[in-house]
Design goal:
With about 240 residues, the chain is α+β, with helices and mostly antiparallel strands. It has helices at about 15-20, 25-30, 70-75, 135-145, 150-160; strands at about 5-15, 45-50, 60-65, 80-90, 105-110, 115-120, 165-175, 180, 190, 195-200, 210, 215-220, 225-230. Bound molecules: glutamine (GLN).
Length: about 240
């Protein structure tokens, strides 16, 4: 399904993360290398980032329902946008979900940015007036925000038990923490000297990329990367 990428580290340009790498999100929008559940990610894209000039820490978002590969405006401006913490995604909409900006990751509660790579039966999710869209990922994001990101692992285990067919790869950031889950899709880590990248698939052929095993929670802070196994055995 969708492909996403997170960054926590020094100040880097959005283009260096999303557009420039040989197999980065721009290329993944039309030629992903590890995508199992569909062919390409043409149903929009979004980049959210924390801005050191912002007084209150509100994240900035730039989203579009059009394919990333043709966005010449973002291509022009991205080299001038810098951040220490980024969540970006390219989207392949699940059948039946709306294709518009409000259904496009990253979602936010004003403090966190969140992307969902996967699919979940909306019947197992609580109704939320705060969901930005009727898209499954937007409703899931609202539920995760409501429960709090410290409970991310528990929330994913619970939803995974309620909907055994769900795919629940989450990526979230708040400016100083990057959190991710693997639940039936791929995720890789690159530890660079200037920070850490989490990505659905490697954006280049660097041999330092490590694959995260399925059913794990990943937490990245300024000084460490922690992997915790999630329990995928509990049935409803
Ligand atoms: N279900 C979500 C959507 O429709 C995410 C899809 C995906 O991961 N490809 O946008």
């Amino acid at each position: 399904m969708c492909r996403h990428l997170g960054w926590l580290g020094g100040q880097v340009t959005l283009s260096s993360l999303v557009l420039d790498p040989p197999y980065g999100l721009r290329v993944q929008s039309y030629a992903p290398r590890r995508q199992k559940h569909c062919l390409l990610n043409a149903d929009g894209w979004g980049v959210g980032f924390f801005d050191s000039a912002s007084q209150d820490g509100t994240p900035r978002r730039w989203r579009s329902p059009a394919p990333l590969w043709g966005d010449t405006s973002f291509d022009s401006v991205a080299p001038a946008l810098r951040s220490n913490c980024v969540v970006a995604a390219v989207r392949s909409a699940t059948v039946g979900m709306p294709i518009d900006v409000s259904a496009t990751a990253p979602f936010t509660d004003g403090r966190w940015l969140l992307s969902h790579n996967g699919i979940v039966d909306r019947a197992v999710l609580p109704l939320s007036a705060k969901a930005e869209s009727v898209c499954d990922s937007a409703i899931l994001a609202a539920m995760i925000f409501e429960r709090g990101l410290d409970a991310l692992g528990d929330t994913i285990q619970e939803i995974g038990a309620a909907d055994p067919k769900a795919r629940l790869n989450i990526l979230a950031a708040n400016g100083s923490r990057l959190l991710a889950t693997t639940w039936h899709d791929t995720l890789s880590i690159l530890r660079r000297p200037d920070g850490v990248v989490l990505a659905s698939e490697p954006y280049d052929n660097d041999s330092d990329w490590e694959d995260v095993p399925d059913h794990h929670l990943v937490e990245v802070t300024a000084d460490r990367v922690t992997l915790t196994a999630l329990d995928a055995t509990e049935g409803p």
